[in-house]
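Problem statement: downstream parser choked on a complex file, so we are re-checking the raw output for the SAJ run. The parser issue turned out to be on our end (a line-ending mismatch), but while we're here, posting the original submission so the record is complete.
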Amino acid sequence: MSPNVPLDTVAVIGLGYIGLPTAAVLAQAGKTVIGVDVKQSNVDAINAGTVPFVEEGLETVVAGCVAQGKLSAQIETPEADAYIVSVPTPFKGDHDADLSYIEAAAKGIAPKLSGGELVVLESTSPPGATEFMADVILGIRPEFTKEPNLPNSLYFSHAPERVLPGRIMIEMVENDRIIGGLSDEAGELNRALYASFCSGELLVTDARTAEMAKLTENAFRDVNIAFANELSIISERQGIDVWELIELANHHPRVNILQPGPGVGGHCIAVDPWFIVSADREYSNLIRTAREVNDSKPELVLEKVLEKADKLKSPVVAALGIAFKANIDDLRESPSKDIAVALTDRLDHGTVLVVEPNIEELPKEFAGKSNVELAELEDAVERADIVLLMVDHDPFKTFDREKLQEKVVIDTKGLWR
Ligand code: SAJ
């Protein structure tokens, strides 16, 4: 049974791609939500009812909740009934998870606690991270305990997010959730909070299983994309059209191969499998190899472009798409961005025209480079000798292919076949 403690005020620590939508749907469900972020510009944007990044449907909800006084943002962690920690968990050089942001969030929460609070870790984390967060807090506040149903109890739980960028506002509400409590009571309390906004099934387990479940979902997808990417490499060497091959094979009732591309990007699928590898290096061969196959794709694409470019005197390459996937502005861990940056480094006798309809200016990785510019689609293709398609953004799908006839086309997404 869920402990009898209030869940009216919620502090969400970290107002990024997951934290802010979570804060918004909680506020929409009637909770009083205080968002916390280290970046003053994010805090100011949210308090003005705006959103610092592109996500379909988010700004309307944020603006409405801010106007109603249900959602606000600040730098300092407030007192609250429940805390949701949604901070980055990048990996370090050796692919071990960097838990320092979780540690910093826990240190911010600890002084605010008075007993009975729920602390939820949402960040994707290696097995043991929820326990780690609890230990940091209990280390600072040893008068509290994770034993349930006592006046000095604290409730710790893990509720990994599983929303797909671009569909966050729908999936945040509709997806089933896995919830892993450090105690049964913590799991139930977490379930009660999430039931306020989530219409999907809320599946309660222990924290370690919940942590591993999230990693497993993304590793599953990574391994399957690696299969498609490996097929694309082999097919090219065999003179076979990989997209036709996959389409044909997928007619088998029990075969469902994913799509190859220029590599796997984003802050989840390209990262999370490493947390499994680092938890058990000896027995994670398949998962590690899949990561390596996917990570090898950008260099292969690059070599193909350079091979074509080397035959031209002053080649112009139109690089179509540098976001990590279609119809978003997120450039984090983007293989297509890496390819475009590497092209500007290695194409010393040519020019790169980056076409990215979802951004206003080139990111910092291109700073100081004289052989690159952000261009409009039509203009870039017209000026280009080589058209390199890397992301299946909608405007590229509908592009008039007649205009590609005189060009060398390298289509890494199979969009124009
Ligand atoms: N990709 C391919 N081929 C495919 C599918 C994807 O190359 O057939 C590439 C994309 O282009 C992109 C990368 O994989 O570079 C990841 O894209 P994605 O759409 O598969 O996933 P993400 O990273 O946007 O979101 C994933 C989702 N996880 C799963 O589908 C198992 C999402 O549900 C998670 O919430 C999210 O990771 C997360 O935050 O962990």
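For whoever reads this later: The radius of gyration is 23 Å.
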